[in-house]
Predict the structure.
Amino acid sequence: MDALSWYGIAALAVLAPAFYFVRKIPAYLALCVLLVAAFAAATWRSVNWAEPSAWIVTLVGLMLCAFGLLIVRVMLIRSVSLLLLAEIKAGLPGTTDERLRDRPRDMRAFGLIRPSGERSVLTGFGSAIGALVAGLYALFGIAK
């Protein structure tokens, strides 16, 4: 194995525990940026610029891995079901209704829905995201 491969393995070995131990998203993002920059800086001089594809693929793969773990972190943080289970385990009074009421506010903040009388309707951006998600679900066989 060449040095690039070892650096890539080392970067992933740092990324995995970072995902586990760094719970705040801004701190996780900062660490990921630092990790990718450190990988790029450490391997920059050893790149064969006549054929840089291995370096580019490794760098992009590292960024995509960090992004994928970021998505998982957001899903874990925002999961009403997981939060409800944690509240039940801890014996806390349920705040599930409050969490569910927060969802439309979040969707409005991200420009996915807009109020229309007593109801909410999808914006153009919300429709595009909905179509993308539906297409991905169909593509990967998630939707039945």
